[in-house]
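Support request from a user on the community tier.

User writes: "When I paste my C-alpha coordinates into the form, the page sometimes reloads and wipes my input. The last time it worked, I copied everything first. Here is what I submitted, just in case something in the input itself triggers the reload:"
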Protein backbone atom coordinates (compact mmCIF):
# COMPACT_ATOMS: atom_id res chain seq x y z
CA UNK A 1 0.00 0.00 0.00
CA UNK A 2 1.39 3.40 -1.01
CA UNK A 3 0.73 6.78 0.58
CA UNK A 4 -1.04 7.59 3.80
CA UNK A 5 -4.42 6.31 4.90
CA UNK A 6 -7.03 9.09 4.94
CA UNK A 7 -7.79 10.73 8.30
CA UNK A 8 -11.43 9.61 8.13
CA UNK A 9 -10.44 6.00 7.54
CA UNK A 10 -7.98 6.14 10.43
CA UNK A 11 -10.75 7.43 12.71
CA UNK A 12 -13.00 4.59 11.56
CA UNK A 13 -10.30 2.00 12.19
CA UNK A 14 -9.49 3.16 15.73
CA UNK A 15 -13.24 3.42 16.36
CA UNK A 16 -13.60 -0.20 15.29
CA UNK A 17 -10.77 -1.12 17.67
CA UNK A 18 -12.46 0.41 20.72
CA UNK A 19 -15.81 -1.04 19.60
CA UNK A 20 -14.20 -4.48 19.79
CA UNK A 21 -12.43 -3.46 23.01
CA UNK A 22 -15.69 -2.76 24.82
CA UNK A 23 -17.44 -5.85 23.53
CA UNK A 24 -14.61 -8.04 24.78
CA UNK A 25 -14.32 -6.38 28.19
CA UNK A 26 -18.11 -6.25 28.71
CA UNK A 27 -18.90 -9.88 27.94
CA UNK A 28 -18.24 -10.90 31.54
CA UNK A 29 -20.98 -8.61 32.86
CA UNK A 30 -23.54 -10.01 30.43
CA UNK A 31 -22.51 -13.58 31.25
CA UNK A 32 -22.27 -12.92 35.02
CA UNK A 33 -25.63 -14.48 36.01
CA UNK A 34 -24.76 -17.67 34.07
CA UNK A 35 -21.12 -17.85 35.20
CA UNK A 36 -22.07 -17.18 38.83
CA UNK A 37 -24.52 -20.08 38.84
CA UNK A 38 -22.29 -22.49 36.91
CA UNK A 39 -19.06 -21.86 38.83
CA UNK A 40 -20.68 -21.07 42.19
CA UNK A 41 -19.18 -17.57 42.54
CA UNK A 42 -20.14 -15.17 45.34
CA UNK A 43 -21.00 -11.49 44.83
CA UNK A 44 -17.58 -10.56 46.21
CA UNK A 45 -15.85 -12.86 43.72
CA UNK A 46 -17.83 -11.32 40.87
CA UNK A 47 -16.85 -7.86 42.03
CA UNK A 48 -13.20 -8.91 42.14
CA UNK A 49 -13.45 -10.31 38.60
CA UNK A 50 -15.05 -7.10 37.31
CA UNK A 51 -12.24 -5.09 38.91
CA UNK A 52 -9.41 -7.50 37.96
CA UNK A 53 -9.42 -6.16 34.42
CA UNK A 54 -8.24 -2.80 35.76
CA UNK A 55 -5.33 -4.32 37.67
CA UNK A 56 -3.71 -4.83 34.27
CA UNK A 57 -5.40 -1.91 32.52
CA UNK A 58 -4.66 1.06 34.78
CA UNK A 59 -0.92 0.78 35.62
CA UNK A 60 0.10 -0.06 32.05
CA UNK A 61 -1.68 2.87 30.40
CA UNK A 62 0.92 5.65 30.93
CA UNK A 63 3.61 3.31 29.62
CA UNK A 64 1.49 2.57 26.55
CA UNK A 65 1.18 6.31 25.90
CA UNK A 66 4.97 6.58 25.97
CA UNK A 67 5.36 3.53 23.72
CA UNK A 68 2.85 4.98 21.23
CA UNK A 69 4.93 8.16 20.93
CA UNK A 70 8.28 6.35 20.97
CA UNK A 71 7.56 3.46 18.58
CA UNK A 72 4.36 4.55 16.86
CA UNK A 73 0.71 3.99 17.69
CA UNK A 74 0.29 1.70 14.69
CA UNK A 75 2.39 -1.24 15.88
CA UNK A 76 1.63 -0.81 19.61
CA UNK A 77 -2.12 -0.90 18.97
CA UNK A 78 -1.77 -4.01 16.78
CA UNK A 79 0.09 -5.92 19.50
CA UNK A 80 -2.49 -4.91 22.10
CA UNK A 81 -5.46 -6.02 19.99
CA UNK A 82 -3.83 -9.40 19.40
CA UNK A 83 -3.23 -9.88 23.13
CA UNK A 84 -6.72 -8.94 24.27
CA UNK A 85 -8.38 -11.02 21.53
CA UNK A 86 -6.48 -14.15 22.59
CA UNK A 87 -7.35 -13.44 26.26
CA UNK A 88 -11.04 -13.23 25.36
CA UNK A 89 -10.91 -16.47 23.40
CA UNK A 90 -9.20 -18.34 26.25
CA UNK A 91 -11.84 -17.14 28.74
CA UNK A 92 -14.23 -19.52 27.02
CA UNK A 93 -12.15 -22.39 28.39
CA UNK A 94 -11.91 -21.13 32.00
CA UNK A 95 -13.11 -23.56 34.67
CA UNK A 96 -12.33 -21.72 37.92
CA UNK A 97 -12.27 -18.35 39.60
CA UNK A 98 -8.45 -18.31 39.46
CA UNK A 99 -8.38 -18.88 35.68
CA UNK A 100 -10.95 -16.15 35.10
CA UNK A 101 -8.96 -13.81 37.34
CA UNK A 102 -5.71 -14.33 35.43
CA UNK A 103 -7.33 -13.91 32.03
CA UNK A 104 -9.13 -10.73 33.09
CA UNK A 105 -5.81 -9.20 34.20
CA UNK A 106 -4.20 -10.22 30.88
CA UNK A 107 -7.16 -8.73 29.00
CA UNK A 108 -6.61 -5.45 30.85
CA UNK A 109 -2.94 -5.34 29.87
CA UNK A 110 -3.83 -5.86 26.22
CA UNK A 111 -6.61 -3.27 26.22
CA UNK A 112 -4.44 -0.64 27.96
CA UNK A 113 -3.04 0.29 24.54
CA UNK A 114 -6.37 1.37 23.06
CA UNK A 115 -7.03 4.92 24.26
CA UNK A 116 -3.47 6.29 24.33
CA UNK A 117 -2.83 4.91 20.83
CA UNK A 118 -6.20 5.94 19.38
CA UNK A 119 -5.95 9.45 20.88
CA UNK A 120 -2.45 9.78 19.47
CA UNK A 121 -3.75 8.81 16.01
CA UNK A 122 -6.68 11.26 16.20
CA UNK A 123 -4.56 14.16 17.52
CA UNK A 124 -2.06 13.54 14.73
CA UNK A 125 -4.55 13.14 11.88
CA UNK A 126 -7.42 15.52 12.69
CA UNK A 127 -7.37 19.31 12.68
CA UNK A 128 -8.57 21.01 15.91
CA UNK A 129 -11.80 22.30 14.32
CA UNK A 130 -12.95 18.72 13.71
CA UNK A 131 -11.91 17.10 17.00
CA UNK A 132 -15.49 17.12 18.27
CA UNK A 133 -16.96 14.99 15.51
CA UNK A 134 -13.87 12.76 15.36
CA UNK A 135 -14.22 12.04 19.07
CA UNK A 136 -17.98 11.72 18.69
CA UNK A 137 -17.46 8.93 16.16
CA UNK A 138 -14.76 7.43 18.36
CA UNK A 139 -16.98 7.59 21.45
CA UNK A 140 -19.85 6.04 19.52
CA UNK A 141 -17.61 3.06 18.84
CA UNK A 142 -16.73 2.25 22.42
CA UNK A 143 -20.19 3.12 23.73
CA UNK A 144 -22.12 1.05 21.17
CA UNK A 145 -19.81 -1.89 21.89
CA UNK A 146 -21.60 -2.83 25.14
CA UNK A 147 -25.01 -2.46 23.43
CA UNK A 148 -23.94 -4.79 20.63
CA UNK A 149 -22.19 -7.17 23.00
CA UNK A 150 -25.16 -7.31 25.37
CA UNK A 151 -27.78 -7.76 22.66
CA UNK A 152 -25.93 -10.13 20.32
CA UNK A 153 -23.82 -11.76 23.02
CA UNK A 154 -26.82 -12.16 25.31
CA UNK A 155 -28.84 -13.80 22.56
CA UNK A 156 -25.99 -16.15 21.68
CA UNK A 157 -25.51 -17.03 25.34
CA UNK A 158 -29.16 -17.99 25.64
CA UNK A 159 -28.82 -20.22 22.57
CA UNK A 160 -25.29 -21.65 22.88
CA UNK A 161 -23.98 -20.82 26.36
CA UNK A 162 -21.45 -18.27 27.60
CA UNK A 163 -18.33 -20.23 26.61
CA UNK A 164 -19.24 -20.16 22.92
CA UNK A 165 -19.59 -16.35 23.00
CA UNK A 166 -16.12 -15.75 24.46
CA UNK A 167 -14.46 -18.12 21.98
CA UNK A 168 -16.34 -16.71 18.97
CA UNK A 169 -15.87 -13.06 19.88
CA UNK A 170 -12.18 -13.51 20.68
CA UNK A 171 -11.51 -15.22 17.35
CA UNK A 172 -13.51 -12.60 15.43
CA UNK A 173 -11.65 -9.72 17.11
CA UNK A 174 -8.39 -10.89 15.53
CA UNK A 175 -9.80 -10.09 12.07
CA UNK A 176 -9.45 -6.35 12.81
CA UNK A 177 -5.70 -6.73 12.41
CA UNK A 178 -6.06 -7.35 8.66
CA UNK A 179 -7.13 -3.79 7.64
CA UNK A 180 -5.04 -2.19 10.39
CA UNK A 181 -1.79 -3.76 9.18
CA UNK A 182 -2.49 -2.30 5.73
CA UNK A 183 -3.06 1.22 7.09
CA UNK A 184 -0.32 3.84 6.89
CA UNK A 185 -0.16 6.78 9.30
CA UNK A 186 1.49 9.74 7.64
CA UNK A 187 2.72 13.06 9.02
CA UNK A 188 -0.42 14.98 9.87
CA UNK A 189 -0.27 17.74 12.48
CA UNK A 190 3.04 16.19 13.56
CA UNK A 191 5.16 13.19 12.65
CA UNK A 192 4.18 9.72 13.89
CA UNK A 193 6.07 8.62 15.96
CA UNK A 194 6.91 11.98 17.52
CA UNK A 195 10.26 13.61 16.93
CA UNK A 196 11.98 14.76 20.10
CA UNK A 197 12.59 18.51 20.19
CA UNK A 198 12.86 21.35 22.64
CA UNK A 199 9.10 21.92 22.78
CA UNK A 200 8.15 18.28 23.36
CA UNK A 201 7.17 18.04 27.05
CA UNK A 202 8.55 15.42 29.40
CA UNK A 203 6.42 13.38 31.78
CA UNK A 204 7.30 15.76 34.67
CA UNK A 205 6.21 18.72 32.49
CA UNK A 206 2.85 17.06 31.90
CA UNK A 207 2.41 15.97 35.51
CA UNK A 208 2.94 19.55 36.75
CA UNK A 209 -0.11 20.77 34.85
CA UNK A 210 -3.18 21.54 36.95
CA UNK A 211 -5.26 20.88 33.83
CA UNK A 212 -4.16 17.24 33.79
CA UNK A 213 -5.37 16.65 37.33
CA UNK A 214 -8.66 18.49 36.87
CA UNK A 215 -9.36 16.40 33.77
CA UNK A 216 -8.22 13.25 35.56
CA UNK A 217 -10.60 13.81 38.50
CA UNK A 218 -13.45 14.56 36.09
CA UNK A 219 -12.59 11.48 34.07
CA UNK A 220 -12.55 9.35 37.23
CA UNK A 221 -16.01 10.55 38.26
CA UNK A 222 -17.42 10.03 34.77
CA UNK A 223 -15.97 6.53 34.63
CA UNK A 224 -17.20 5.62 38.12
CA UNK A 225 -20.82 5.97 37.06
CA UNK A 226 -20.15 4.28 33.74
CA UNK A 227 -18.37 1.24 35.19
CA UNK A 228 -20.78 0.93 38.08
CA UNK A 229 -23.65 0.69 35.59
CA UNK A 230 -21.96 -1.45 32.94
CA UNK A 231 -20.63 -3.95 35.50
CA UNK A 232 -23.69 -4.36 37.69
CA UNK A 233 -26.70 -3.40 35.53
CA UNK A 234 -27.46 -7.01 34.44
CA UNK A 235 -27.35 -8.29 38.04
CA UNK A 236 -29.30 -5.24 39.30
CA UNK A 237 -32.09 -5.65 36.75
CA UNK A 238 -32.42 -9.42 37.16
CA UNK A 239 -31.90 -9.90 40.88
CA UNK A 240 -32.84 -6.54 42.46
CA UNK A 241 -35.66 -5.44 40.12
CA UNK A 242 -36.98 -8.85 39.06
CA UNK A 243 -36.62 -8.56 35.29
CA UNK A 244 -36.15 -11.72 33.21
CA UNK A 245 -32.86 -12.35 31.44
CA UNK A 246 -34.50 -11.47 28.11
CA UNK A 247 -35.91 -8.20 29.49
CA UNK A 248 -32.56 -7.36 31.02
CA UNK A 249 -30.85 -7.79 27.65
CA UNK A 250 -33.40 -5.49 25.98
CA UNK A 251 -33.22 -2.75 28.65
CA UNK A 252 -29.42 -2.80 28.88
CA UNK A 253 -29.01 -2.83 25.09
CA UNK A 254 -31.31 0.19 24.65
CA UNK A 255 -29.54 2.05 27.46
CA UNK A 256 -26.11 1.49 25.91
CA UNK A 257 -27.41 2.38 22.43
CA UNK A 258 -28.85 5.71 23.67
CA UNK A 259 -25.50 6.43 25.31
CA UNK A 260 -23.65 5.87 22.04
CA UNK A 261 -26.02 7.85 19.80
CA UNK A 262 -25.98 10.87 22.12
CA UNK A 263 -22.15 10.85 22.07
CA UNK A 264 -22.13 10.86 18.27
CA UNK A 265 -24.68 13.70 18.14
CA UNK A 266 -22.84 15.81 20.71
CA UNK A 267 -19.55 15.39 18.88
CA UNK A 268 -21.16 17.00 15.83
CA UNK A 269 -22.96 19.68 17.87
CA UNK A 270 -19.86 20.71 19.82
CA UNK A 271 -17.93 21.38 16.60
CA UNK A 272 -20.90 23.33 15.24
CA UNK A 273 -21.16 25.49 18.37
CA UNK A 274 -17.43 26.24 18.28
CA UNK A 275 -17.63 27.18 14.56
CA UNK A 276 -20.51 29.52 15.42
CA UNK A 277 -18.34 31.47 17.85
CA UNK A 278 -18.54 29.71 21.21
CA UNK A 279 -15.20 28.83 22.75
CA UNK A 280 -14.12 25.23 23.46
CA UNK A 281 -13.90 26.28 27.11
CA UNK A 282 -17.59 27.22 27.29
CA UNK A 283 -18.80 24.32 25.17
CA UNK A 284 -16.93 21.50 26.88
CA UNK A 285 -17.17 22.77 30.46
CA UNK A 286 -20.94 23.27 30.09
CA UNK A 287 -21.40 19.75 28.76
CA UNK A 288 -19.29 18.23 31.53
CA UNK A 289 -21.13 20.16 34.25
CA UNK A 290 -24.55 19.13 32.90
CA UNK A 291 -23.43 15.50 32.85
CA UNK A 292 -22.51 15.41 36.53
CA UNK A 293 -25.57 17.32 37.73
CA UNK A 294 -27.74 14.83 35.83
CA UNK A 295 -25.65 11.98 37.23
CA UNK A 296 -26.41 13.04 40.81
CA UNK A 297 -30.14 13.28 40.16
CA UNK A 298 -30.39 10.03 38.18
CA UNK A 299 -28.42 7.95 40.68
CA UNK A 300 -30.71 9.14 43.47
CA UNK A 301 -33.73 8.38 41.27
CA UNK A 302 -32.54 4.85 40.54
CA UNK A 303 -32.05 4.35 44.28
CA UNK A 304 -35.49 5.51 45.52
CA UNK A 305 -37.97 5.16 42.65
CA UNK A 306 -39.98 2.05 41.64
CA UNK A 307 -38.79 -0.25 38.86
CA UNK A 308 -40.34 1.54 35.87
CA UNK A 309 -39.23 5.01 36.95
CA UNK A 310 -35.79 3.64 37.82
CA UNK A 311 -35.39 2.39 34.25
CA UNK A 312 -36.47 5.84 32.99
CA UNK A 313 -33.74 7.43 35.15
CA UNK A 314 -31.28 4.94 33.67
CA UNK A 315 -32.19 6.03 30.13
CA UNK A 316 -31.91 9.75 31.01
CA UNK A 317 -28.51 9.13 32.62
CA UNK A 318 -27.27 7.26 29.53
CA UNK A 319 -28.36 10.06 27.16
CA UNK A 320 -26.79 12.92 29.13
CA UNK A 321 -23.63 11.05 30.09
CA UNK A 322 -23.18 10.09 26.44
CA UNK A 323 -23.06 13.78 25.55
CA UNK A 324 -19.95 14.19 27.72
CA UNK A 325 -17.83 11.45 26.19
CA UNK A 326 -16.42 13.31 23.15
CA UNK A 327 -15.03 15.89 25.58
CA UNK A 328 -13.13 13.32 27.63
CA UNK A 329 -10.56 13.00 24.85
CA UNK A 330 -11.16 16.17 22.78
CA UNK A 331 -10.13 18.27 25.81
CA UNK A 332 -6.65 16.68 26.21
CA UNK A 333 -6.17 16.51 22.42
CA UNK A 334 -7.00 20.21 22.17
CA UNK A 335 -4.88 21.26 25.16
CA UNK A 336 -1.91 18.89 24.89
CA UNK A 337 -1.57 18.89 21.11
CA UNK A 338 -0.09 16.08 18.99
CA UNK A 339 3.28 16.18 20.74
CA UNK A 340 1.88 15.23 24.17
CA UNK A 341 -1.56 13.67 23.66
CA UNK A 342 -0.39 10.04 23.89
CA UNK A 343 1.26 10.49 27.28
CA UNK A 344 -1.39 12.93 28.62
CA UNK A 345 -4.22 10.53 27.74
CA UNK A 346 -2.18 7.63 29.12
CA UNK A 347 -2.03 9.40 32.50
CA UNK A 348 -5.57 10.84 32.44
CA UNK A 349 -7.18 7.60 31.31
CA UNK A 350 -5.21 5.62 33.91
CA UNK A 351 -6.44 7.93 36.66
CA UNK A 352 -9.94 7.81 35.24
CA UNK A 353 -9.95 4.05 35.11
CA UNK A 354 -9.04 3.66 38.75
CA UNK A 355 -12.83 3.98 38.92
CA UNK A 356 -13.06 0.71 37.02
CA UNK A 357 -10.86 -0.88 39.65
CA UNK A 358 -12.93 0.48 42.55
CA UNK A 359 -16.57 0.73 41.44
CA UNK A 360 -17.25 -2.95 40.66
CA UNK A 361 -15.57 -4.39 43.76
CA UNK A 362 -16.96 -1.75 46.15
CA UNK A 363 -20.43 -2.43 44.76
CA UNK A 364 -19.95 -6.17 45.20
CA UNK A 365 -19.04 -5.74 48.87
CA UNK A 366 -21.92 -3.31 49.50
CA UNK A 367 -24.46 -5.62 47.86
CA UNK A 368 -23.17 -8.66 49.75
CA UNK A 369 -23.24 -6.83 53.09
CA UNK A 370 -26.62 -5.08 52.72
CA UNK A 371 -28.45 -7.17 50.14
CA UNK A 372 -29.38 -3.89 48.41
CA UNK A 373 -28.01 -1.49 45.78
CA UNK A 374 -29.11 1.66 47.64
CA UNK A 375 -25.76 2.63 49.19
CA UNK A 376 -23.97 1.88 45.90
CA UNK A 377 -26.23 4.32 44.02
CA UNK A 378 -25.78 6.93 46.77
CA UNK A 379 -22.00 6.62 46.53
CA UNK A 380 -22.15 7.06 42.75
CA UNK A 381 -24.10 10.30 43.27
CA UNK A 382 -21.38 11.62 45.61
CA UNK A 383 -18.63 10.77 43.11
CA UNK A 384 -20.49 12.80 40.46
CA UNK A 385 -20.09 15.86 42.68
CA UNK A 386 -16.31 15.34 42.57
CA UNK A 387 -16.49 15.28 38.78
CA UNK A 388 -18.29 18.62 38.80
CA UNK A 389 -15.39 20.11 40.80
CA UNK A 390 -12.78 18.56 38.51
CA UNK A 391 -14.13 19.87 35.23
CA UNK A 392 -15.43 23.28 36.34
CA UNK A 393 -13.13 24.36 39.20
CA UNK A 394 -9.76 22.57 38.97
CA UNK A 395 -9.50 22.43 35.15
CA UNK A 396 -8.32 25.88 33.95
CA UNK A 397 -9.38 27.47 30.69
CA UNK A 398 -9.47 24.97 27.82
CA UNK A 399 -6.93 26.26 25.30
CA UNK A 400 -3.75 24.91 23.66
CA UNK A 401 -0.76 24.70 26.01
CA UNK A 402 2.53 26.28 25.01
CA UNK A 403 4.89 23.49 26.07
CA UNK A 404 7.95 25.71 25.66
CA UNK A 405 6.81 27.57 28.78
CA UNK A 406 6.77 25.97 32.23
CA UNK A 407 3.72 26.31 34.52
CA UNK A 408 3.79 29.65 36.32
CA UNK A 409 6.44 31.10 33.96
CA UNK A 410 5.63 34.62 32.80
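"...and here is what came back when it finally went through:"
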Amino acid sequence: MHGSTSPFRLVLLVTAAVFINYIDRGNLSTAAPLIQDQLGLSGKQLGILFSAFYIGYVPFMPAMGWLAERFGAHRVLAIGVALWSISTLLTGFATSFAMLLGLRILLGIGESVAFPCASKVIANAIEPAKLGIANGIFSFGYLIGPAFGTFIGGGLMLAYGWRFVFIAFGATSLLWLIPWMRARIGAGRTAEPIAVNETAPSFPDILRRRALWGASLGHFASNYGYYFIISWLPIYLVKARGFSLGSMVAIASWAYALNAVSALAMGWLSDRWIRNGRTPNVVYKSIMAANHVAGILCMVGMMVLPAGASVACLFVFEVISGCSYPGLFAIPQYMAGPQATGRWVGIQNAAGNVAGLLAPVITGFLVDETGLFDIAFGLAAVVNFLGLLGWTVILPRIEPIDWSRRPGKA
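Agent notes: The reload is a front-end session timeout and is unrelated to the input. Residues 7-39 form the longest helix (33 residues). The chain has one domain: 7-192+202-394. Escalated to web team.
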